[in-house]
């Protein structure tokens, strides 16, 4: 018997390499602990993570945590960007601090966008839509170019990054302009800056991304680690022994750690037993902060699957027919749905006999990712489709209407958001 899997649209097999080769953990293992899981979590659109348990622990115990993402203001915001915005907003609703960077330095350096266009696209495409989708005041929205804490931190991180490492990740060559390299470090600074003292100090911060973005996350985790004064190692083989190494720490700081943990002080490290890793890490963070270090926690990440393009293949900003922009006219959005590729059979008879293939259907994907919130309702669509009682023509019309409604409503909210920019410390010009 085949089981119905209404969330199976994007096959997780395509992603299994990420688990095995790159050490990304399965999100499913955490799902049971989350109180009001987001639609993307319930439906396994979010399938992987790094260190998300740290975020979850803070969320469940009422401790500080944050979620951050950045958007390059180089074109239109579309449904793919909406996914990330929703993930940030969800974390804000769970009590987290929300950060939204407009990556204007990157757009200027890499895409040649003028500062004026960056400003305009940043506000009109990304910020207004994020507010319309539910981002609330208290969120930190900023343009990289105008935000000194991030620019200063990127310079500092540059001390620990070298050309070979960056070029391996970003494909830089001798021809790459320097500002492009700077913008890569700026992205790492975006990710780490919520942990600066002025933003409340070290805390779990989650960066929701598509799985292709993992190299950036790994780079930033590496930089966090290299920038810190201490390294904490669990030496399981030696019966719960924990070692703290002072990579760039003063003797005094190391001494203080030994004293506060009851550990044994050596030349360049302290050995500690009878303490949990959490306890040791929190002492080390306090001592490091006191002695002028950053004590960054490695940033956490979640990985979501991609939507396929409406015409099959990839969704790409350079192919307008492949995506629906949040500012597409409702009419045009509906038309794009009507022209989208389905998982329907060649003839109606076949469709009735064999049923449709929602797993291969970009229309079904729109329902699953964006347009149907109720899981049972979605399950009905799925069952009717595979059972052959749902025909694509009607199904597309149904979906097109939902899309029209969503875009109309979203765009009304965007208009209202124009009046609310002040609440976020921003203005339209
Ligand atoms: N580089 C990202 C892009 O191309 C934008 C970005 C800048 C970003 N800073 C970030 C994404 C921080 C996640 C976190 O769209
Ligand atoms: Fe896709 Fe709907 Fe056709 Fe099923 S009936 S293949 S979900 S368009």
UniProtKB/TrEMBL annotation:
Pfam family of the protein (one): tRNA-synt_1b
Q: Which UniProt keywords apply?
A: Aminoacyl-tRNA synthetase, ATP-binding, Cytoplasm, Ligase, Nucleotide-binding, Protein biosynthesis
Q: Which SUPFAM superfamilies match?
A: Nucleotidylyl transferase
Residues crossing the lipid bilayer are none
Q: Which GO terms describe its cellular component?
A: cytoplasm
Which GO molecular function terms does the record list?
Answer: ATP binding; tryptophan-tRNA ligase activity
| Record-linked InterPro entries | aa-tRNA-synth_Ic, Rossmann-like_a/b/a_fold, Trp-tRNA-ligase, Tryptophan-tRNA-ligase_arc
Q: Name the residue ranges of motif: 'KMSKS' region.
A: 314-318
Kindly list the biological process annotations in GO that this record carries: tryptophanyl-tRNA aminoacylation
* The reaction(s) this protein catalyses: tRNA(Trp) + L-tryptophan + ATP = L-tryptophyl-tRNA(Trp) + AMP + diphosphate + H(+)
The answer to whether keyword Hydrolase applies is no
Subcellular localization, per the record? Cytoplasm
Name the source's superkingdom. Archaea
Q: What Enzyme Commission number(s) apply to this enzyme?
A: 6.1.1.2
Q: Which HAMAP family match?
A: Trp_tRNA_synth_A (MF_00140_A)
Q: Spell out the family assignment given in the record's similarity comment.
A: Belongs to the class-I aminoacyl-tRNA synthetase family.
Tell me, in a sentence or two, what this protein's role is.
Catalyzes the attachment of tryptophan to tRNA(Trp).
| The protein, known as | Tryptophan--tRNA ligase
Please give the organism. Candidatus Methanoperedens nitratireducens
Name the gene that codes for it: trpS
